[in-house]
């Protein structure tokens, strides 16, 4: 399906009362939605670590439903369809995202193996492929809802595409800073490599499905598949792997995503996709003050 062009909405003033226009101011919605979702997500992550896996699944779906409701309310306020979660697009874009995420991080692992800093020691039980599955699904869905569907979209509406990319990437990196084994470099790496790649994927369609697929596959491939720590969390994988070498090449205890290999590989792929996204006419949004000035001129 054709990408949704944000400026078509941002420049549209007709059909909204003064009260609705005040409520539509992106800063108010950003503070409200981001605060509610961040608190709810934090509570859900804590619960998923301390309750049985079978209970973690319904808890995760409750949070997914909460975020979907918030996205729907936002679209209702803007008097538009819920483009971000268009179900017809999911059947194509979600598998594409899964394949992109799988290919991207497999490439990181392959380069690390070529450099001799990662070794394959054997194969474990296939049941390891399901390790932390509910939490990984939750992270893929909810973090994309929050960071691309809410934070990036509303920041972009207010300060424009380029500043919004920096904002969502920086905050995405910072929320991973408290993770186990996190370092200043891992925070920077996540902000750049994931911040650029995931927002570029989102901008290609202006829907969340591809970004969700990339995010989930990114985590699943390095953890349950290759047995590499995911953002500082150890996960037993289908493959038994070990890393040995300088931390800037291995990522250390935080995992491969904190390595220079992942930083360069994922950032380059993200930049290529971003170039493709910005070539779509109307896909780069000017800051609100520039749009308002243009409206006054007309």
SS element count, helices: 12
Uncertain runs are none
Summarize model confidence as the mean pLDDT: 86
Radius of gyration: 20 Å
Helix share bin: 55-70%
Which term fits the overall shape? globular
**Main sheet strand line-up:** 1-2
Main sheet characteristics:
2 strands, antiparallel
| Number of discrete domains | 1
For the secondary structure, the number of strands is 2
Percent of residues in beta strands: under 5%
Distance between the termini: 31 Å
From the helix content, strand content and strand pairing, which structural class follows?
Answer: mainly alpha
The sequence of SSEs as H and E is HHHHHEHHHHEHHH
Write structural notes for this entry:
It is a single chain. The protein has helices spanning 6-10, 18-23, 26-50, 53-77, 87-114, 133-159, 161-175, 184-205, 209-225, 247-250, 260-278, 288-297, and strands at residues 118-123, 239-243. It is mostly helical and 298 residues long. It has one domain (6-297). The protein has a two-stranded antiparallel sheet with strand order 1-2. The longest helix has 28 residues, at 87-114. The two termini are 31 Å apart.
Key attributes of the depicted protein:
single chain, 298 residues, mainly alpha, two-stranded antiparallel ribbon, 2 strands, 4% strand
Helices and strands in order, then pairings?
Blueprint: H1 6-10, H2 18-23, H3 26-50, H4 53-77, H5 87-114, E1 118-123, H6 133-159, H7 161-175, H8 184-205, H9 209-225, E2 239-243, H10 247-250, H11 260-278, H12 288-297
Antiparallel strand pairs: 1-2
How would you sum up this structure in a few lines?
The chain has one domain. 68% of the residues lie in helices and 4% in strands.
């Amino acid at each position: 399906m054709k990408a949704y062009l944000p400026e078509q909405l941002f420049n549209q003033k007709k059909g909204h009362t003064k009260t609705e226009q005040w409520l539509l101011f992106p800063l108010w919605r950003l503070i409200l939605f981001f605060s509610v979702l961040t608190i709810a997500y934090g509570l859900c992550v804590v619960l998923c670590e301390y309750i049985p896996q079978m209970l973690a699944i319904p808890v995760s779906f409750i949070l997914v439903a909460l975020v979907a409701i918030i996205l729907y309310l936002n679209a209702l306020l803007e008097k538009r369809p819920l483009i971000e979660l268009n179900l017809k697009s999911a059947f194509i874009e979600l598998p594409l995202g899964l394949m992109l995420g799988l290919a991207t991080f497999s490439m990181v692992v392959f380069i690390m193996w070529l450099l001799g800093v990662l070794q394959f020691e054997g194969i474990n039980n296939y049941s390891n492929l399901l390790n932390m599955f509910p939490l990984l699904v939750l992270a893929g869905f909810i973090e994309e809802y929050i960071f691309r569907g809410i934070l990036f979209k509303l920041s972009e509406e207010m300060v424009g595409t380029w500043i919004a990319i920096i904002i969502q990437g920086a905050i995405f990196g910072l929320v991973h800073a408290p993770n186990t084994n996190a370092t200043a470099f891992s925070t920077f790496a996540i902000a750049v490599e994931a911040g650029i790649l995931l927002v570029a994927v989102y901008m290609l369609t202006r829907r969340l499905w591809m970004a969700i697929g990339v995010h989930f596959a990114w985590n699943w491939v390095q953890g349950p598949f290759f047995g590499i720590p995911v953002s500082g969390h150890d996960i037993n994988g289908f493959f038994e792997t070990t890393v040995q070498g300088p931390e800037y090449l291995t990522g250390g205890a935080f995992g491969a995503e904190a390595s220079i290999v992942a930083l360069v590989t994922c950032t380059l792929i993200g930049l290529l996709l971003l170039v493709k996204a910005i070539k779509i006419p109307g896909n780069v949004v000017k800051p609100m003050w520039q749009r308002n000035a243009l409206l006054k001129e007309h």
